[in-house]
Design brief:
The structure holds 2 protein chains of 2 kinds. Chain A is α/β, with parallel strands linked by helices. Chain A has 2 domains: 61-166 and 331-371, Periplasmic binding protein-like II (D-Maltodextrin-Binding Protein, domain 2, 3-Layer(aba) Sandwich), CATH 3.40.190.10; 169-329 and 383-443, D-Maltodextrin-Binding Protein, domain 2. In chain A, 45% of the residues lie in helices and 15% in strands. In chain A, strands 8, 9, 10, 11, 12, 14 and 15 form a 7-stranded mixed beta sheet that branches. In chain A, strands 1, 2, 3, 4, 7 and 13 form a 6-stranded mixed beta sheet that branches. A two-stranded antiparallel ribbon of chain A has the order 5-6. In chain A, strand 5 and strand 6 (160-161) form a beta hairpin. In chain A, helix 8 (216-232) packs across helix 17. Chain A is globular, with a radius of gyration of 25 Å. Chain B contains 12 helices and no strands. Chain B is mainly α. Chain B has a single domain (65-293), classed as Orthogonal Bundle (MetI-like fold), CATH 1.10.3720.10. Classes of the chains: A alpha/beta, B mainly alpha. The A-B interface holds A 1, 4-5, 8-9, 11-12, 15-16, 19, 23, 102, 105-106, 108-109, 112, 133, 213-216, 271-277, 280, 410-412, 414-415, 418-419, 421-423, 425, 427-428, 443, 446 and B 13, 16-17, 20-21, 23-25, 27-28, 31, 50-52, 131, 134-136, 139, 152, 154-157, 237, 240-247, 249, 257-258, 260-265.
Chain lengths: 447, 297
């Protein structure tokens, strides 16, 4: 009997200990982090370029990083680890990489209850969501100065900058240059121009648009592109007015027009769009099965992976007034925790990210994106770069963060996209779709 | 007197042992289930966004809003249809497979393994596999066979439920089949012999002997499939993402997107509380109803 008691007591102790261990803090103390073997001296003149960071000698520190990644970003963590180990071997990053669209916000909500990671990587629009909560740390000017000035505006709140924008995406209509040349199509500037190309495509049996509407996010994304050029172009505070009750989707013709462009695409794409994923869609575009695709730089990686000689360009989706601008989106944005206990180590990471140009080029070439750092230019061949440069020279580029900050993605744009999908499929009337967007007014702002 | 004392001492000792054995489970259950449930009920009376420190009390407003919310009603409508069809199809087909395997066919173990393997795969993978099947693999068959069958089941509101039922049943039928098979193999052979002697045919024996003896297995399967289907989420994430539109948005999916992506934590908690209540009610009714039909040998 005694043996049985002892056994049960032992079992209970083991299970309770296991439970307590599971509930305990798993954060590795700084001292436990293994020091990398690479000597700091190998990184050359790095220390001279890092005014706010301490020298590479110091206590070993492990920083936690929550990285909300786009499809193109997966893999850059290894590049950053390698560059960091070369310059600051005492700093190790413990990465948690999640999908930005689906999992970044849930993770942030979770960490806001239990304590934020030292570094968070998201998008520029996340700054507007989280900075007002007082949880983000201000980024030191010595690092911000290494970035382009244009990158700061939308990550600065009340004069304080909480995000370091690292790269940028461009969004618009990607077009098959060869197909355009063969058919004598010019880049369209107005809706009439675009309609003429669509008509010619249909007459010749060419699918005008490649699309992947099974991914509801793609509907939400293109809708914001349309909203930028038809709504925010004319009224930069439309989102604020929407919340103030001065404008609404049900009454605003421009907003309705932006929604109806989705129908134009749906009516001029292949019938299996609601069963087609992005990779298949991009493949169709590259294989010449469609002439155009409303998308963003994230498609370039697929385009060039499928066929590195694929020749494509980009133009803004034409609006009603014929003055559409190419959409620019600050993408990878580094934010830091206001409560981090390792600010020096965090600064070392910021130093590597902003001063290691080789690393920057490697990341930009991999993600096929544009640089937001001064004097850093990616080396990959981007067939659409000439178009981007031309629009930039004419001042025909607009930052989508303006729209995304006023009408947030999670809970608003994302949900509206579902109604648009239901409307396109005939399961919901257009009026109900607009009303549903209006009904979500309380969820349209991050704060 | 001594005997009584000894028994009382033994009882106390046993009670202490039982308590010790139950304690870890009780702690885990309390921390993992009871506390979050109580917190969810508490938050359901607030308009908390899940981020800010303030949790404004709104009494029953979230529950009132739920009744008026067409998206929540749609989510329930989809979930109920998914559950009812799943419960019928999985029980009937799993039982038929079990009977077939119990009939002494050759290579029984091979069939059993083949049917069971899909349930070892994550529902996320199953969703992705069937998305590819419906959008790439099966349509390619049309080209090969020269047919024009619509395999794009996830692409339309009227067919998406069908597609999801195929994926879900493909995954789980083998699992429930094993439970039925175990039940069938535990039916005493002499009962069948006695029924045979009394002149009962195979169908009559199945209805009057096998089915009543299978009642405990039926209880397990019906309750398991129903509650599992009411909680469907991961299959949807990787296949339809709740679409097209909201055509395949389940209650859990709606709760998650509302609470987390939509930053309406209080409202989302109200949704989850209603789901828990429904799950409890369904399980209780089913267990009570089906237990009555169970027979003991």
């Amino acid at each position: 009997m005694k043996k049985k008691s002892l056994l049960s007591l032992l079992l209970a102790t083991c299970m309770t200990a296991g439970l307590l261990a599971g509930c305990g803090n798993s954060e590795a103390p700084a001292e436990e982090a293994p020091a990398a073997e690479t000597p700091a001296e190998e990184s050359g003149d790095a220390e001279a370029e890092a005014p706010a960071a301490e020298s590479s000698s110091g206590e070993a520190v492990t920083l936690t990083v929550l990285a909300g990644q786009s499809t193109t970003d997966a893999g850059i963590e290894d590049m950053i680890d390698e560059a960091l180990a070369a310059k600051y071997p005492e700093v190790t990053l413990e990465w948690e990489c999640v999908d930005w669209g689906n999992d970044f916000q849930p993770k942030m909500q979770q960490y806001m209850q239990s304590g934020l990671p030292d570094i968070m990587i998201g998008k520029a629009q996340d700054v507007a969501t989280y900075a007002p909560q007082g949880i983000l740390g201000e980024i030191d000017a010595s690092y911000l100065d290494k970035g382009l000035d244009a990158a700061r505006e939308n990550v600065t709140i009340d004069g304080k900058t909480y995000g370091l924008v690292y790269n940028a995406l461009y969004q618009g209509v990607y077009y098959n240059k060869t197909m355009f040349a063969e058919n004598g199509w010019e880049v369209p500037k107005t809706q009439e121009d675009l309609q003429a190309i669509i008509d010619d495509c249909n007459a010749k049996g060419i699918t005008p648009f490649a699309s992947h509407m099974v991914d509801t996010w793609s509907i939400g994304n293109v809708t914001m592109q349309f909203m930028m050029n038809d709504v925010f172009n004319n009224d930069p505070t439309w989102g604020d007015k929407f919340r103030a009750g001065e404008v609404s989707f049900s009454e605003d013709e421009a907003a309705q027009t932006a929604y109806t462009y989705n129908k134009l695409i749906f009516d001029n794409t292949y019938p299996e769009t609601f069963s087609t994923e992005q990779t298949d869609c991009d493949a169709k575009m590259v294989l010449g099965e469609a002439a155009m695709k409303v998308s963003g730089s994230w498609s370039i990686q697929n385009f060039l992976d499928i066929d590195e000689s694929f020749d494509f360009g980009i133009f803004p989706f034409p609006n009603q007034t014929g003055d559409s601008k190419l959409i620019f989106e600050p993408n990878i944005t580094i934010m830091t925790s206001a409560a981090t206990e390792h600010q020096d180590a965090v600064n070392k990471v910021l130093d590597v990210l902003t001063s290691d140009k080789e690393l920057a080029v490697e990341i930009l070439d991999y993600t096929k994106t544009a640089s937001m750092l001064k004097d850093v230019t990616p080396t990959f061949t981007n067939p659409s770069q000439a178009d981007i440069d031309a629009y930039a020279a004419d001042g025909m580029i607009v930052d989508v963060t303006l729209g995304n900050n006023q009408l947030v993605w999670g809970g608003f744009q994302e949900e509206n996209a579902k109604d648009i999908a239901a409307w396109l499929q005939g399961d919901e009337s257009f009026e109900d779709c607009l009303k549903a967007s209006d009904g979500r007014v309380d969820a349209s702002s991050a704060n | 007197m001594n005997e009584k004392k000894k028994i009382s001492y033994m009882e106390k000792k046993m009670s202490r042992q039982y308590f010790l054995m139950v304690l870890p489970g009780f702690i885990i259950f309390t921390i993992g289930l009871i506390v979050p449930l109580v917190l969810a009920v508490r938050y359901s009376f607030t308009s908390w966004d899940g981020m800010s420190a303030e949790k404004p009390f709104v009494a029953f407003q979230n529950y009132v809003d739920l009744i008026k919310d067409p998206e929540f009603r749609n989510a329930w409508w989809f979930t109920l249809r998914f559950t009812i069809w799943n419960t019928i199809i999985q029980n009937v087909v799993a039982l038929l497979f079990a009977v077939a395997l119990d009939s002494g066919i050759k290579a029984q173990k091979v069939y059993r393994t083949v049917l069971f393997v899909p349930c070892l795969i994550s529902a996320l993978v199953v969703g992705f596999v069937w998305l590819k099947m419906f959008s790439n693999v099966l349509p390619a068959l049309n080209d090969v066979l020269g047919t024009n069958i619509n395999f794009l089941l996830f692409g339309e509101k009227r067919t998406v439920l069908r597609g999801l039922l195929i994926a879900n049943n493909w995954q789980w039928i083998g699992y429930w089949m094993l439970i039925y098979l175990a039940g069938l193999q535990s039916v005493p052979g002499d009962l069948h012999e006695a029924a045979k002697v009394d002149g009962a045919g195979p169908v009559s024996r199945f209805i009057n002997v096998t089915l009543p003896m299978l009642a405990p297995a039926i209880t397990i399967c019906v309750v398991g499939i129903t509650t599992g289907s009411l909680k469907v989420y991961d299959l949807l994430v990787s296949s339809t993402k709740g679409g097209p539109g909201r055509a395949s948005t389940s209650v859990i999916y709606q709760t998650y997107t509302t609470a987390i992506n939509g930053r309406q934590y209080g409202y989302g908690c109200a949704m989850s509380v209603t789901l828990v209540l429904v799950l409890l009610m369904v399980a209780m009714v089913q267990v009570k109803g089906l237990k009555k039909k169970e027979v003991q040998v």
